[in-house]
């Protein structure tokens, strides 16, 4: 399923209409009918529907929904918020149809009594503004949206909750519709995945309206779905041996922080690594070894409890991860730079490793093997010289610019993790929950990703599947054994067992 900007969606509509010849009025009919079908499944016949329409094509969808629901036996009213002469084109065509079918149309005016309308309403359908919304809500939209948000009726939005933008834009108003459900037309828009806007959508579903599959070919941004996982997760051969499943090297930890490297390694093993070696300071080995009997160790030279620069033979390894629990001391900065230069295999840099490369980003471009960076928004802000709030508002464009500029795979972590390739293609992972919002989750993810990188031919598939599995395990554990308060990274690692069992059954 693709993810689009407003501009891209308009282009897809244009291609469908001009190059394939599907009339805009038919697209609007399809949109309204697809949403009406969902509403019929959701509502009983005694629930009275009030549809709020604006001047654009989003309102046009509202007129089709009105006619279709009325025909299905529902009591429907439409409140038009703009003057008659503002409704044009396809929307005007469908408005006329609604009227000729005997629909009830109310017009907004200064003295309109919304309270009275609310008394005759069980469900608000918000068809005021869609992808054409610009800036803060103007009157009377702002008053109507404020009223609807205070009303305790079910609120269903068409395509986008009115008042929020489709893209990574600011300028929205807090009165934007807080929908219970949003029926998104054809493809989620960027704002569906932005922290600032996601909650306005409520629960969302995508409805198809007949856009041809080939019209999407220029869109390089999509959701990583259950189906994507089924198509790309490698199966195990009956004749495989430990070497077939990858030999990984985890570099990290310090005298005072042995835990995170233990989590990464445990996750890598549980995710199916063939062989795993942990490179850490000698002082950290006993505590890690006590938890992980399956790993082997490479005692690295340390200074003051931190890993220091040293000769390292990385040639036996299929993938390397560096950074977790390593600390920010100058000693570990040197080893990070050295590994960036000498790892002739896929390399994942996380946590303190990201801190160390912030002033050496150009060295990433010189690598001839894939490099993966896994920042959370704070680390992304540091790497891209932006503020955290700018990263949260523009995660999709900032990731893309960075990944393309430095030739890296970027996994920008968060409630919706964004995976970007050096070519600028992007995938959004939807699994995971707030139980992951605690120390240790990122360390576990790094381990799962390390293993996936060793087992997939395509790094993007590895990263997307790794993020999916990590989040899916958290979802499973919160649903069956834990809550999003008590979930620990070790529980997430344990939950992988169930996820793999389900995927292979
Ligand atoms: N073929 C297609 O394209 C299909 C499109 N489809 C549907 O169309 C939707 C996009 O339609 P659209 O482009 O007409 O934009 P839409 O969001 O309805 O409204 C724009 C109007 O709103 C106004 N306005 C803007 N900002 C405002 C604000 N802050 N406060 C107040 N008013 C504001 C603006 O006024 P203006 O600024 O021009 O004065 C303009 O008149 C899309 O989301 C989907 O639902 C489907 O039917 C499938 C086929
Ligand atoms: N609210 C949330 N919903 C879903 N996933 C989340 C949420 N918060 C955090 N995560 C996930 O948890 C992990 C946290 O990583 P990170 O911030 O590096 O944590 P750590 O401090 O454990 O290293 C990431 O995979 C991120 O996508
Ligand atoms: K809307």
Automatic annotation (TrEMBL):
<dbReference type="InterPro" id="IPR030677">
    <property type="entry name" value="Nnr"/>
</dbReference>
<dbReference type="GO" id="GO:0052856">
    <property type="term" value="F:NAD(P)HX epimerase activity"/>
</dbReference>
<dbReference type="InterPro" id="IPR000631">
    <property type="entry name" value="CARKD"/>
</dbReference>
<feature type="binding site">
    <location>
        <position position="159"/>
    </location>
    <ligand>
        <name>(6S)-NADPHX</name>
    </ligand>
</feature>
<dbReference type="InterPro" id="IPR029056">
    <property type="entry name" value="Ribokinase-like"/>
</dbReference>
<feature type="domain" description="YjeF C-terminal">
    <location>
        <begin position="225"/>
        <end position="503"/>
    </location>
</feature>
<comment type="similarity">
    <text>In the C-terminal section; belongs to the NnrD/CARKD family.</text>
</comment>
<dbReference type="InterPro" id="IPR036652">
    <property type="entry name" value="YjeF_N_dom_sf"/>
</dbReference>
<feature type="binding site">
    <location>
        <position position="126"/>
    </location>
    <ligand>
        <name>K(+)</name>
    </ligand>
</feature>
<dbReference type="Pfam" id="PF03853">
    <property type="entry name" value="YjeF_N"/>
</dbReference>
<keyword id="KW-0547">Nucleotide-binding</keyword>
<feature type="binding site">
    <location>
        <position position="58"/>
    </location>
    <ligand>
        <name>K(+)</name>
    </ligand>
</feature>
<dbReference type="GO" id="GO:0046496">
    <property type="term" value="P:nicotinamide nucleotide metabolic process"/>
</dbReference>
<feature type="binding site">
    <location>
        <position position="325"/>
    </location>
    <ligand>
        <name>(6S)-NADPHX</name>
    </ligand>
</feature>
<feature type="binding site">
    <location>
        <position position="442"/>
    </location>
    <ligand>
        <name>AMP</name>
    </ligand>
</feature>
<dbReference type="Pfam" id="PF01256">
    <property type="entry name" value="Carb_kinase"/>
</dbReference>
<dbReference type="GO" id="GO:0110051">
    <property type="term" value="P:metabolite repair"/>
</dbReference>
<keyword id="KW-0630">Potassium</keyword>
<dbReference type="InterPro" id="IPR004443">
    <property type="entry name" value="YjeF_N_dom"/>
</dbReference>
<feature type="binding site">
    <location>
        <begin position="57"/>
        <end position="61"/>
    </location>
    <ligand>
        <name>(6S)-NADPHX</name>
    </ligand>
</feature>
<keyword id="KW-0413">Isomerase</keyword>
<comment type="similarity">
    <text>Belongs to the NnrD/CARKD family.</text>
</comment>
<keyword id="KW-0479">Metal-binding</keyword>
<feature type="binding site">
    <location>
        <begin position="413"/>
        <end position="417"/>
    </location>
    <ligand>
        <name>AMP</name>
    </ligand>
</feature>
<dbReference type="GO" id="GO:0052855">
    <property type="term" value="F:ADP-dependent NAD(P)H-hydrate dehydratase activity"/>
</dbReference>
<feature type="binding site">
    <location>
        <position position="443"/>
    </location>
    <ligand>
        <name>(6S)-NADPHX</name>
    </ligand>
</feature>
<comment type="function">
    <text>Catalyzes the epimerization of the S- and R-forms of NAD(P)HX, a damaged form of NAD(P)H that is a result of enzymatic or heat-dependent hydration. This is a prerequisite for the S-specific NAD(P)H-hydrate dehydratase to allow the repair of both epimers of NAD(P)HX.</text>
</comment>
<protein>
    <recommendedName>
        <fullName>Bifunctional NAD(P)H-hydrate repair enzyme</fullName>
        <ecNumber>4.2.1.136</ecNumber>
        <ecNumber>5.1.99.6</ecNumber>
    </recommendedName>
</protein>
<comment type="function">
    <text>Catalyzes the dehydration of the S-form of NAD(P)HX at the expense of ADP, which is converted to AMP. Together with NAD(P)HX epimerase, which catalyzes the epimerization of the S- and R-forms, the enzyme allows the repair of both epimers of NAD(P)HX, a damaged form of NAD(P)H that is a result of enzymatic or heat-dependent hydration.</text>
</comment>
<feature type="binding site">
    <location>
        <position position="162"/>
    </location>
    <ligand>
        <name>K(+)</name>
    </ligand>
</feature>
<keyword id="KW-0456">Lyase</keyword>
<keyword id="KW-0520">NAD</keyword>
<dbReference type="GO" id="GO:0005524">
    <property type="term" value="F:ATP binding"/>
</dbReference>
<keyword id="KW-0067">ATP-binding</keyword>
<dbReference type="GO" id="GO:0046872">
    <property type="term" value="F:metal ion binding"/>
</dbReference>
<keyword id="KW-0511">Multifunctional enzyme</keyword>
<feature type="domain" description="YjeF N-terminal">
    <location>
        <begin position="9"/>
        <end position="217"/>
    </location>
</feature>
<feature type="binding site">
    <location>
        <position position="376"/>
    </location>
    <ligand>
        <name>(6S)-NADPHX</name>
    </ligand>
</feature>
<keyword id="KW-0521">NADP</keyword>
<feature type="binding site">
    <location>
        <begin position="130"/>
        <end position="136"/>
    </location>
    <ligand>
        <name>(6S)-NADPHX</name>
    </ligand>
</feature>
<comment type="subunit">
    <text>Homotetramer.</text>
</comment>
């Amino acid at each position: 399923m693709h993810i689009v900007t407003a501009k891209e969606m308009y282009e897809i509509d244009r291609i469908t209409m001009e190059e394939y010849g599907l009339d805009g009025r038919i697209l609007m009919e399809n949109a309204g009918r697809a949403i009406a079908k969902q509403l019929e499944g959701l509502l009983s016949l005694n629930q009275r529907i009030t549809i709020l329409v604006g001047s654009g094509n989003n309102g046009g969808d509202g007129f089709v929904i009105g006619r279709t629901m009325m025909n299905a036996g529902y009591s429907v009213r439409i409140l038009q918020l703009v003057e008659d002469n503002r409704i044009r084109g396809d929307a005007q065509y469908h408005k006329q149809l609604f009227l000729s079918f005997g629909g009830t149309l109310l017009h907004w005016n200064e003295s309109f009594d919304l309270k009275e309308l609310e008394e005759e309403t069980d469900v608000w359908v918000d068809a005021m503004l869609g992808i054409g919304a610009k800036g803060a809500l103007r009157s009377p939209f702002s008053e109507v949206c404020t009223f609807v948000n205070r009303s305790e009726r079910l609120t269903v939005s068409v395509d986008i909750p009115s008042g929020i933008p489709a893209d990574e834009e600011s300028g929205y108003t807090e009165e934007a519709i807080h929908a219970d459900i949003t029926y998104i037309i054809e493809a989620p828009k960027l704002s569906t995945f932005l922290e600032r806007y996601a909650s306005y959508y409520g629960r969302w579903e995508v409805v198809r309206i007949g856009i041809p599959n080939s019209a999407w070919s220029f869109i390089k941004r999509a959701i990583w779905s259950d189906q994507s996982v089924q198509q790309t997760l490698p199966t195990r051969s009956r004749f495989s041996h430990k070497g077939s499943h990858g030999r990984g090297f985890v570099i990290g930890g310090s005298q005072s922080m042995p835990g995170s490297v233990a989590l990464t390694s445990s996750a890598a093993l549980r995710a199916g690594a063939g062989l795993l070696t942990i490179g850490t300071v000698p002082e950290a080995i006993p505590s890690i070894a006590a938890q992980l009997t399956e790993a082997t160790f490479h005692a690295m030279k340390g200074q003051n409890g931190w890993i220091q620069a040293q000769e390292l033979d990385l040639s036996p390894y299929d993938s390397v991860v560096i950074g977790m629990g390593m600390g920010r001391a100058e000693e570990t900065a040197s080893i990070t730079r050295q590994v960036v230069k000498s790892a002739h295999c896929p390399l994942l840099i996380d946590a303190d490793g990201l801190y160390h490369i912030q002033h050496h980003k150009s060295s990433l471009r010189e690598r001839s093997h894939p490099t993966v960076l896994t920042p959370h928004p704070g680390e992304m802000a540091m790497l891209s010289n932006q503020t955290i709030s700018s990263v949260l508002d523009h995660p999709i464009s900032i990731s893309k610019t960075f990944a393309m500029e430095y030739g890296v795979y970027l996994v920008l972590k968060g409630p919706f993790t964004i995976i970007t390739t050096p070519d600028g293609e992007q995938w959004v992972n939807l699994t995971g929950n707030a139980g992951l919002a605690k120390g240790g989750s990122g360390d576990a993810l790094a381990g799962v990703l390390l293993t996936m990188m060793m087992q997939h031919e395509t790094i993007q598939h590895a990263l997307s599947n790794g993020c999916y599995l990590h989040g899916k395990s958290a979802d499973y554990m919160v649903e069956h054994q834990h809550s999003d308060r008590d979930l620990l990274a070790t529980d997430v690692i344990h939950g992988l067992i169930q996820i793999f069992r389900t995927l292979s059954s």
